[in-house]
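[job 0412] stage=fold_complex status=start
inputs:
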Amino acid sequence: MILPGILASGISGHLGGNYTSIATVTLSSTQSSVTFSSIPQTYTHLQIRALTVTNVPSGSAVMYFNGDTTSANYHNHYLYGSGTSAAANNGGNNSYAPEFVGGAAATSPGASIIDILDYTNTNKNKVSRELGGYDANGSGFINISSVLWMNTAAISSITFNITSWLSGTSFALYGVK
Amino acid sequence: MASAPTYTPIATYTVSSATPTISFTSIPSTYTDLVLIIGSALSATSSKGGLFTLNSDTGTNYSRTELYGTGSSAGSSRGTNISSSATYIGAITGFDTTNPANAILHFMNYSNTATYKTVLGRFTLATQESDATVYLWRSTSAINRIDLNLQSSVNWTAGTFTLYGIVAA
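[job 0412] stage=fold_complex status=done
writing structure:
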């Protein structure tokens, strides 16, 4: 019995074409790398939504733009909670961008949402932000982070590497007008 | 690469009178993720816990890891085997129309039946705290129903609750 609350089940119309699915990678076997390449330059922002399963509990991945592994080109700040304490840290002059796109197992998959803002603008460096984490009913991790890529090039490819992602892991790339 | 519109409102509710429960039922399984966006206020003198229940599961099958900042300090907390009828949602509610709250909940890959379900949430009650929380629902069932409730027998008195579906290519 739900009343006097509100009961909802209707479906209304589409929002239009301002948020578009570009590509999705769903793993059917263990992989250590996922790449979105030939990203269209017709959007304003990009969003990546990932649900990940690894064999490395709370494993973090690294992210590269345009295959750039140049030392000192990536900087990041992050704020995280372990379930018992909060902490903040930063990393600079890296050859990669650390991102949480991990998760321990199918019983505690990790989730990440990464926004890459103004990715085609060649007049400035690029900034991304992430909300990510996992919970394993007694352990877990929640993270808010930002990444600076010291490069003015338009982003045309994004690569994530980790020791291994397991079958069932999925990455979806969206474009925002 | 596909290029179809893919961010679809499934249902929207605008609260203008005392409402203790909001339920999204018969959620289609045709999307990849669900996004629930809430702007809400109560008729109360302090914030109250908001709760969500998935598929009417009132068992101790929820847990969470939370990160919050109060303006003077940051902290993190955890809930395991949560024994109440639903999972506590941080600053989802606000407490009056002068101090409303905003919340965004992401139900990731909600219709897959291979994994337990992970939910990411971001909450803002600007006069009290900002919060990020990850939830786990220990079930491989596809999510087909979301119920929102409040602790302390209070009601929502104002707000909008919209559930969106996102389809991946």
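[job 0412] summary: The CA atoms of residues 54 and 150 of chain B lie 15 Å apart.
[job 0412] exit 0
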